[in-house]
C-alpha cells in the first residue's frame, strides 16, 4: 500500500494528549482500551494473541512490526486479544519462509484496528512518566471531541473483571490421556504454551471455565491444580479466590502464573494494587531468592501483590523479586505444596530461564503422592 493513500489516524490518551500517524491497511473506525507498551524485540504474534492483553491497546517499542509474518504454530489463543495496535513502522511484506501469511492479513481476519507512523518512542516515554491510562486509536480525525466524550466514559482497568471475556465456556482436554499426571487447570485466560509445557512433562490437562467450583476441578481426580494467567483486576474474581482457598485448606499441589499468582496472594489475605505501568516484555530481570541466581523473564501484568503484606504473612515466603523495582515476583506457602510467580515461565515469547518451575510443580506432586500413600 502506498503511503500517500493511507488514511490519517491518531491515538488519543485519556488526559487529552494526541499522537498522530497513519492507518494500517484499509480498516477504519475507532478502538478503545487501556494503552500499554511491550519492550520485546520479537514475539509480536504471541503478544497479540495472549488473553492477558484483552482490553488493551498495545504500543510496540520495536521499530519494525510485521517483518517476519505470522505462523499458526505461534498463536497463543483463538485469535487476537488486544483491542488495538500502535507501531512505528508496519511491514506489509514479510521475509520468513516458515510464515503462513502476513501480519496485515492476520489483522484483517481478526478485524483489528492498527495505526503506524506514530512516534512510539515519544509515546512510550509519555506513558512511562504519566502511567497507564485509557486511550482510543482512530481514523475519525474530524470527530475528536466526540471521541473524548466516549473515552471519558470508557471503563477503567482498575476494578474491571475480564477473565470471563477470555475463558473457555466449556471444559476441554489437552495432552495424552494416558499421561502419568492429571492436572485440573482453572482458565482465567490461559496461554497455549502453558498447556504445551505441562504436556511435555507427561501431564494430561483438563481446562475448566473461570467460574468453575473446586468440586468441578476435583471431579477430574487430578494430581495437581493449576491457576492460569489472565487479564483485568484480580480482586473481582471472588469465585477463583475461593477455589484457591479450598485447594490450600486441603493442602493439595498447586501452581499459579500471573493472575494465578495474584489469586494465591488474595487467598492468603495479601492485597493487590494497580501498578503505574506494569511489566511487559521479554527481558525482565528477576532474582530467585532461594538459589541466588538471576533469571531473564517474560512478563505481562499491570497489577502486583503487596510485598510488605507478603513479608508479614507467617505462612508465605517470597521466592522471587523483580530487580527493576523490587516488587514480589514469586511466593510459596511454607507448609503447603503451593507456589506461584508473577511472570511467565512458559515464555512464548521470551527466554526459558524459568522453565524449571514446571518441574518444581511436578516435584511437588510426586512428594504429595509419596506422603499420602
From TrEMBL:
Residues given in the record as L-glutamine binding sites: 52, 230, 232, 259, 262, 300, 302-303
Family in the record: Belongs to the CarA family.
SMART domains in UniProt: CPSase_sm_chain
Entry's EC annotation: 6.3.5.5
InterPro entries: Anth_synth/Amidotransfase (IPR050472), CarbamoylP_synth_ssu (IPR006274), CarbamoylP_synth_ssu_N (IPR002474), CarbP_synth_ssu_N_sf (IPR036480), Class_I_gatase-like (IPR029062), CPSase_GATase1 (IPR035686), GATASE (IPR017926)
Broad class of enzyme this protein falls into: ligase
Function field: Small subunit of the glutamine-dependent carbamoyl phosphate synthetase (CPSase). CPSase catalyzes the formation of carbamoyl phosphate from the ammonia moiety of glutamine, carbonate, and phosphate donated by ATP, constituting the first step of 2 biosynthetic pathways, one leading to arginine and/or urea and the other to pyrimidine nucleotides. The small subunit (glutamine amidotransferase) binds and cleaves glutamine to supply the large subunit with the substrate ammonia.
Annotated spans, CPSase: 1-181
Sorted UniProt keywords: Amino-acid biosynthesis, Arginine biosynthesis, ATP-binding, Glutamine amidotransferase, Ligase, Nucleotide-binding, Pyrimidine biosynthesis
Known catalytic reactions: L-glutamine + H2O = L-glutamate + NH4(+); hydrogencarbonate + L-glutamine + 2 ATP + H2O = carbamoyl phosphate + L-glutamate + 2 ADP + phosphate + 2 H(+)
TM annotation in the entry: none
Span of domain Carbamoyl-phosphate synthase small subunit N-terminal: 7-138
Gene name tied to this protein: carA
Name assigned to this protein: Carbamoyl phosphate synthase small chain
Amino acid at each position: 500500500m502506498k503511503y500517500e493513500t493511507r488514511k490519517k489516524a491518531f491515538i488519543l490518551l485519556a488526559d487529552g494528549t494526541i499522537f498522530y500517524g497513519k492507518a494500517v491497511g484499509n480498516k477504519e473506525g475507532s478502538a478503545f482500551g487501556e494503552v500499554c507498551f511491550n519492550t520485546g524485540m520479537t514475539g509480536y504474534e504471541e503478544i497479540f494473541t495472549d488473553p492477558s492483553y484483552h482490553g488493551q491497546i498495545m504500543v510496540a517499542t520495536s521499530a519494525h512490526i510485521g517483518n517476519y509474518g505470522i505462523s499458526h504454530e505461534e498463536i497463543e489463543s483463538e485469535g487476537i486479544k488486544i483491542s488495538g495496535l500502535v507501531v512505528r513502522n508496519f511491514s506489509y511484506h514479510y521475509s520468513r519462509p516458515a510464515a503462513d501469511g502476513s501480519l496485515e492479513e492476520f489483522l484483517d481476519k481478526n478485524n483489528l484496528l492498527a495505526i503506524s507512523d506514530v512516534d512510539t518512542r515519544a509515546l512510550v516515554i509519555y506513558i512511562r512518566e504519566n502511567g497507564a491510562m485509557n486511550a482510543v486509536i482512530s481514523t475519525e480525525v474530524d470527530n475528536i471531541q466526540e471521541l473524548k466524550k466516549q473515552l471519558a466514559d470508557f471503563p477503567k482497568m482498575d476494578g474491571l473483571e475480564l477473565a470471563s471475556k477470555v475463558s473457555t465456556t466449556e471444559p476441554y482436554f489437552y495432552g495424552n490421556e494416558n499421561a502419568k499426571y492429571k492436572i485440573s487447570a482453572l482458565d482465567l485466560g490461559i496461554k497455549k504454551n502453558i498447556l504445551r509445557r505441562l504436556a511435555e512433562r507427561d501431564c494430561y490437562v483438563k481446562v475448566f471455565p473461570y467460574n468453575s467450583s473446586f468440586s468441578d476441578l476435583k471431579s477430574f481426580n487430578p494430581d495437581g491444580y493449576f491457576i492460569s494467567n489472565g487479564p483485568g483486576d484480580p480482586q473481582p474474581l471472588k469465585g477463583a479466590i475461593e477455589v484457591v482457598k479450598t485447594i490450600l485448606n486441603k493442602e493439595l499441589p498447586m501452581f499459579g502464573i500471573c493472575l494465578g499468582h495474584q489469586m494465591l496472594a488474595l487467598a492468603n489475605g495479601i492485597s493487590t494494587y494497580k501498578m503505574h505501568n506494569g511489566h511487559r516484555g521479554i527481558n525482565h530481570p528477576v532474582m530467585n531468592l532461594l538459589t541466588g541466581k538471576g533469571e531473564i523473564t517474560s512478563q505481562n501484568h499491570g497489577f502486583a501483590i503487596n510485598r510488605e503484606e507478603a513479608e508479614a504473612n507467617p505462612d508465605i515466603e517470597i521466592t522471587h523479586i523483580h530487580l527493576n523495582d523490587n516488587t514480589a515476583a514469586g511466593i510459596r506457602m511454607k507448609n503447603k505444596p503451593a507456589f506461584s510467580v508473577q511472570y511467565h515461565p512458559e515464555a512464548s515469547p521470551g527466554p526459558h530461564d524459568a522453565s524449571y518451575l514446571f518441574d518444581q510443580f511436578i516435584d511437588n506432586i510426586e512428594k504429595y503422592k509419596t506422603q499420602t500413600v
